[in-house]
Known about the structure:
This protein has helices at 2-6, 12-19, 22-37, 42-51, 62-75, 93-97, 118-132, 178-198, 215-228, 275-280, 294-300; strands at 81-82, 88-90, 112-114, 138-148, 161-172, 205-210, 236-239, 253-261, 263-273, 285-293. By secondary structure, the protein is α+β, with helices and mostly antiparallel strands.
Amino acid sequence: xxxxxxxxxxxxxxxxxxxxxxxxxxxxxxxxxxxxxxxxxxxxxxxxxxxxxxxxxxxxxxxxxxxxxxxxxxxxxxxxxxxxxxxxxxxxxxxxxxxxxxxxxxxxxxxxxxxxxxxxxxxxxxxxxxxxxxxxxxxxxxxxxxxxxxxxxxxxxxxxxxxxxxxxxxxxxxxxxxxxxxxxxxxxxxxxxxxxxxxxxxxxxxxxxxxxxxxxxxxxxxxxxxxxxxxxxxxxxxxxxxxxxxxxxxxxxxxxxxxxxxxxxxxxxxxxxxxxxxxxxxxxxxxxxxxxxxxxxxxxxxxxxxxxxx
Length: 310
């Protein structure tokens, strides 16, 4: 990156990063994009279509994917309001709210970024709804969205863009980890039914990890586990005290959606965050997020007939 800055005139870095007003910077970048687009020939478009991992279509059958996602909406409890997100979010939605480097996000020249994690965007919407409604209530949101991520993923068949079915719940703290425990239990019961229906042949299970001693960790035994137990035929909720992945991203606790097909498969993730607390400037706000890759779930699910029955 320093090589690029050195190629510009003195003062350009300051002007571009902080000297220009946001609207002036946007005007400049739009003019640069228009100038570069004016030199693109059709053959280059075809070449980029073949070579650019950001623009290649998904390999999954959209009809099968649509049927699976429709069934997820059917399984989702009515308390979750569906949200159809925009393809873009305000610049910094991930880096300002969560611990995500902006280099992992596809930024635009219009002061926005392509949605790379729908849970961040849903948390913003939840904060907006929380601020305009009764603070004693609870907001539960869900969406299915194709995300685009800038980091490279190892392994065959890994794409820069994929669809996620995501949940976000937000409520005010009631003490002793009660609010978070109830929201986690609602998320886990839903995911238990999803795994039970789509991948029972892979022996799926759910995990709960408390990051250090906390009131919420105590609620696993007396609130979360009893609420989830028996909600699905084959899916168990297991404590996973050895997990360290996600510590710092999730604050008090994390959950996981797991299965086994020769090796352990990570189907989805979630946990408690401080995102709505940051967005509302209120330390008493509590937030729980979770999501699953619907394309991964489709590729592992048992064959189903056209109306979705196994």
